[in-house]
Design brief:
Two copies of one chain form a homodimer.
Chain A (H helix, E strand, L loop, with lengths): L1 H18 L16 H11 L6 H12 L4 H23 L8 E2 L2 E2 L1 H5 L1 H24 L5 H15 L4 H11 L6 H26 L5 H27 L2 H4 L5 H5 L4 H24 L8 H12 L3
Antiparallel strand pairs in A: 1-2
Helix pairs in contact in A: 1-3, 1-4, 1-14, 2-6, 3-4, 3-9, 4-6, 4-9, 6-7, 7-9, 8-9, 9-10, 10-13, 13-14
Chain lengths: 302, 302
């Protein structure tokens, strides 16, 4: 299948790039390399696997605009670093207190709470270090690089993903409410799925209608993704998911399932996916990768 | 005195800019504003006072290159956000476990550990959000903005300040050693003092000799600053410092005092300051602000 081959091609580039990061770490670094323990802690979580959907979306969006894939790669890796740092901090005892992530002990279980905090801080910083170092080499037009990085920073930031984490923290054991759930999903999940799509397009100088259509696609895909995750937390398989089932309910989390019930949530995921697919109708076959990705994501639930 | 008047002018601009940040926060934000609690936690530490030496240095360096002060301001504020996030995370129970900062309860004492982690994450993100939003408006030449942001990201990052925090964490209760102390000071402190100086210059397109002279100045000032801090932790006044005296020794920290003793450390601070002043000799009166700042910083110890 073309979709799967394409996904694997983007994924291989991302994996290869990430695998080589910080292999110059020294115990007491005299250069601008990171200290060895920090590099180990960052790499532990960054290389723990996962589908790498976010960086793959950035590569696909850059490809859509005919940006050379190698030039887009540092930005794709940066988005995965941001996603990973948020997971490390989210698992800390002071936050969700999860001991298991992707089937392996969480970062703080292996490296301790202090080092896990610094590994998270380091991955967020490294995301911007990586993008800005790439931007400084001039392969991407500087104005386009700035617009792409700005998009990522805002959607990963205090009005985006971090803001979503705060709403999540504050929503535990509160009465479920539709407005709150929508903004929680938008910020906590959809923003960091939309960001790499728009950033990939912006690297290629996209503007106007393209950005607005793909923003709708990203919102549909992102909301569907979170709703599917909420469903899998109830009906999923611990081994496949790499984390315990039922942890949302245990934490009193606000989720699509807690608000709409399982069948209502499944229906919502289908509708969000349809919204995503519809948004890219104007692009016909050229957008096939994106529409197939949305349908494939939905199929995780079946 | 011209120096003090100049410092206060830069400081007033920075304070005014920072005071207005995130005043559009909403409890459940529907815009890209941050949630109210997050804004409160970030503002609590950002507005807790301090000399704001780092952003002032950026303003002075930008001024040195005739960059309009208003165009430099977002970058200056960003450096203060990075400094503040590192203090919030450093005070956490999993790190230095300090209850008091600048004479007030630490962030996690007021807002809880989870929110303090998110407030720190938010401030690091907001630093890049702020700089990239400014860079996108085009007042600074895009290439120069990228070089300035890159400098800040690398020196605040895993091979700079964050790396220094890791060395600090790993140096507790270990045998004092000169090489380790030097890299600890360079990364933990001097890098985030050098970064705003070089970034301010880069905003104005500086290159070559100017960057290299000011890098030497920044290293001298930064090392002196940390050594002076180490001395004040022994001979200082709790009320003036806003934190308990003797906490370094209590934590078994590697400091200039633990390695060289108090009089050896004082001598080192004087030598580092002299290195800083000497580095700017080629610029004569034009660099007076910087040399006076170095001498004033040393006078804290007397």
């Amino acid at each position: 299948m073309i979709y799967e081959k394409q996904y694997d091609e983007y994924l291989a580039l991302v994996d290869d790039y990430i695998e080589k990061l910080w292999d110059d770490a020294e115990e007491l670094p005299k250069t601008d390399a990171p200290p060895l323990t920090l590099a180990k802690a960052m790499r532990y979580s960054l290389l723990a696997g996962g589908k790498r959907m976010r960086p793959v979306l950035l590569m696909a969006a850059a490809d859509f605009m005919s940006v050379p894939l190698m030039a887009a790669l540092p930005y794709a890796a940066a988005v995965e670093m941001i996603h990973t740092y948020s997971l490390i901090h989210d698992d800390l005892p002071a936050m969700d207190d999860d001991d298991l992530r992707r089937g392996k002990p969480s970062n703080h279980i292996v490296f301790g709470d202090g080092m896990a905090i610094l590994a998270g801080d380091g991955l967020q910083s490294a995301a911007f270090e990586t993008m800005l170092s790439a931007a400084a080499n001039g392969e991407i037009k500087p104005e386009n690089a700035i617009r792409a990085m700005k998009e990522i920073s805002l959607r990963a930031g205090i009005g985006g993903m971090i803001g979503g984490q705060v709403i999540d923290l504050e929503s535990e054991d509160r009465q479920p409410e539709a407005g709150r759930l929508f903004y929680l999903q938008q910020k906590k999940t959809a923003d960091l799925i939309t960001a790499p799509i728009l950033a990939g397009l912006l690297l290629g100088g996209a503007s106007g209608a393209i950005l607005s259509d793909f923003e709708k696609y990203g919102a549909g895909l992102g909301h569907a993704f979170q709703v599917i995750d909420d469903c899998l937390d109830v009906i999923g398989n611990q081994q496949e998911l790499g984390k315990p089932i039922g942890s949302d309910a245990e934490h009193g989390k606000l989720t699509a399932v807690s608000l709409y019930g399982l069948s209502g949530a499944k229906k919502a995921a289908e509708e969000f996916t349809q919204d995503a697919v519809n948004a890219l109708a104007p692009y016909g076959e050229k957008a096939d990768f994106f529409t197939e990705l949305a349908n494939y994501s939905l199929s995780r639930m079946r």
